[in-house]
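Appendix B, example 12.
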Amino acid sequence: MQCDIEQEIAVTETPANNGGIREILTVATQRGASDVHINAGLKPILRINTELVPLDCDVVTEQAAREMAIEILGRERFLQFEKNRDFDFSTKIANGSRFRVNAHFQRDTVALAFRVIPNAIPDIDSLNLPQIVKELATLPRGLVLVTGHTGSGKSTSLAAMIDAINKRFRKRIITLEDPVEYALENGTSMIEQREIGQDCLNFASGLRHALRQDPDIILVGEMRDLETTSSTITAAETGHLVFSSLHTINAPQTIERIIDIYPAAQQNQIRTMLANTLQAVISQTLFKRTDKPGMVPCVEILLCTSAVRNCIRENRIFEIPNIISTSRRIGMQEMDYSIAQNYFLGRIEKQEAIMRSTNPGRMEKIFETGRPEDYLGVNANGNEEKTNGRKK
């Protein structure tokens, strides 16, 4: 059957009742989708391993989109949504699957974007992240940032790090999320999850009060404005281990984004504060796997050594990429190194690796003339990596 949206995109089967929102979400979880999109004038769209897949059912009308939003929000919250024009929340369906949801308007019609939240938090060793990421979860204090574009796996990595702490240490952990995504169960640690808009007014307010609640570790879902950023850095300054995320694509951009949030008169001060508190920046993006179904992360790691702290303090951010590329022996790595490593391991497709690298020309040359052994070390489980037959 030819798709009504794009010919090259496959079509999946119809929901049982041809369009009820909960039936659509049920089909999405059965198909292994990461996202569901509802827009008037289009069929419901799933994102499966990065590809957009229309459901084989009726096109969603304006009235149907509105009714879906009312069904999932309830009438009271729908009225609030109509007033504010955007609404973030989480929801759950009968099979136990959970979703992070954004309701919004486009061309004056209701639209819905669902992100599927896996019920089980993946073990950090199963995520194909560098070993140093697991070690960062054992830090006593400071700020650890996980960055990347929307859908890059930031929330999953943060949840896995918190879960690793929860399994090993007796800590009091407070999370501030908008909305709560993974449901964290108390293990060795004691965990409180507070949802913005429901359990506290906003990130900044939740952070101020969290400091009075005897936390050892604080997770801030996103540093999205000056007040939240300032409160997050203050929490790290006062001796807590703080995890947070930003929508930035690499470590230098992350540092510059934080500094640029502040007025010019305060930027020298924040450089000093950031240099003293920042412990690491993990920047990641997801690639579709070629060796088996699923996704694999490519990751840039910045560890805040004394050289990095001096660069931040003295506004020499442009020197940080060179520090990363020359510090692999202590756990740092640049994004292109991680992309090349995953290619030589047979996990990702060559053209996508080249296209999404920071320097496509250099990456193509690496694939043509480079030695795979220069990019292969030991994996997260401590075992020697193998190339799966990939040749240079």
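The first helix runs from residue 21 to 30. The first strand starts at residue 35 and ends at 39.
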